[in-house]
Design goal:
This protein is mainly beta. About 5% of the residues lie in helices and about 40% in strands. Strand 24 (about 245-250) and strand 25 form a beta hairpin. The protein is flat, with a radius of gyration of 24 Å. The two termini are about 30 Å apart.
């Protein structure tokens, strides 16, 4: 099915006589016999681009890769060249010069030429500075397209061609990936390596299987869930930590440990434990329990702001928590972590309604292009908390520079005001 390019509608609907620009009609013709993509009734007007499947917008926002159809220019929708990758992941290099396709390889973003053929079905990555491309266990220098290092990443799946996730930290100086502990690949640990020497920056092989490891913002300390806090690079242990995922405040004065415990079914127990960053002494603890059937709710709430000073806890209607149905949320309490004082009460709405988070987006989501924030199924003006665009049932994302709103499943692009 061919993509549909629709005119952008602003304010009132355009008259029926409005037509697409001639260039766009030529680039993506819709013959009478073609089946048009039905627009869900919940989708707002103003759709700029739409195509079946998933898509990726380029870093400079001049192109969109429709994984099943081709590469198109934005905002006019001109078809640049054809591709058909099904549901394999497509990601751009930071400078937009290349894109990588799982199971295909590294391609020139202008022509689609395959420059490096992939040996894996999943597990490619670009370094954030655009120096490196990683395909499975092979590291390539993007300046020369030559291999420069070999890793030992966890793999498996069909024909052992699926590799675990690799990501970069410390401004791209370090790479993090899962490395197998034993030959049968049943256990693994996180490896932290320097992207210049490809040597380990810390030895994580002795930590418990599955332990969560996280560095603070200036990379002078690292936390190992269930083990302790350590100084870097000395490795000196500073204090013990409870088991769970850790998060540092920007100045490392507060540490949050997110601990999840399965209770006798049908419940799951979630605790947010706040500790003093210097001593490890507990500052506060927030507990919540949900039915296992509604585990998604437990994983999304409570909400915490960036400096770990405020927590947003749900107010659950009495008698509504139980197996087989989601709890009814009547509102939220914004609580000061150190004093336990209620800073604000927000009433109304439920967890499926993006408007229910109105007023909370500045606490919980990054701001793109100095203006917009995403909260679930809605995009908000970060200054006014005004809801700009909302969907029912589909999550929205912002393009790299915040010019467009994008949803997946059926790739749909809107231009934001």
């Amino acid at each position: 099915m061919k993509p549909i390019i629709r005119p952008l509608m602003v304010g009132v609907a355009l008259a029926a006589a409005c037509i697409l620009p001639a260039a766009a009609q030529e680039s993506t013709p819709i013959p009478p016999e073609a089946t048009e993509i039905p627009v869900p009734p919940s989708y707002p007007e103003g759709i700029l681009f739409q195509a079946p499947g998933r898509c990726t917008v380029s870093p400079d926002e001049t192109s969109v890769v429709s994984w099943e159809n081709g590469v198109f220019s934005l905002p006019d929708g001109l078809r640049r060249f054809d591709i058909s990758y099904g549901n394999f992941d497509v990601q751009y290099s930071p400078d937009g010069q290349y894109f990588a396709v799982s199971g295909v390889g590294l391609q020139d973003a202008e022509t689609g030429e395959i420059l490096i053929e992939s040996v894996v079905r999943a597990g490619e990555a670009f370094s954030p500075d655009g120096r490196l491309f990683i395909d499975g266990n092979t590291v390539y220098d993007l300046a020369t397209l030559e291999p420069i290092a070999t890793l030992n990443r966890r793999y498996g799946g069909e024909n052992d061609m699926f590799y675990g996730v690799l990501w970069f930290i410390n401004e791209g100086r370090w790479a993090v990936y899962e490395q197998p502990i034993d030959p049968d690949l049943e256990r693994n640990y996180l490896a932290f390596v320097d992207t210049t020497t490809w040597e380990p920056v810390i030895d994580t092989s002795g930590y418990p299987f599955g332990a969560a490891i996280n560095f603070n913002h200036d990379y002078t300390r690292y936390a190992v869930g269930g083990v302790g806090m350590f100084a870097y690079p000395s490795g000196e242990k500073l204090f013990d930590l409870p088991e769970g995922q850790t998060l540092f405040s920007p100045d490392s004065s507060v540490i949050m440990v997110r601990a999840t415990y399965l209770l006798p079914r049908p419940s799951e127990y979630l605790a947010y434990i706040f500790l003093d960053g210097e001593t490890g002494t507990q500052i506060n603890r927030f507990d919540i329990s949900w039915p296992v059937a509604d585990v998604a709710y437990a994983l999304n709430y409570p909400l915490v702001n960036a400096d770990l000073s405020l927590v947003v806890m749900p107010d659950v209607a009495p008698g509504t928590v139980g197996p087989g149905h989601p709890p009814v949320i009547e509102g939220w309490r914004v609580i000061d972590v150190r004093t336990n004082a209620i800073v604000q009460r927000i009433e109304g709405g439920d967890l499926d309604d993006p408007r229910a988070a109105l007023g909370l987006n500045s606490l919980t989501t990054p701001i793109i292009n100095g203006r917009y924030a995403v909260q679930g199924e809605g995009i908000f003006d970060a200054e006014t908390d005004q809801l700009i665009l909302a969907l029912d049932g589909n999550r929205l994302a912002l393009s790299p520079q915040g010019t467009y709103a994008v949803t997946q499943g059926m790739c749909t692009v809107w231009e934001l005001p």
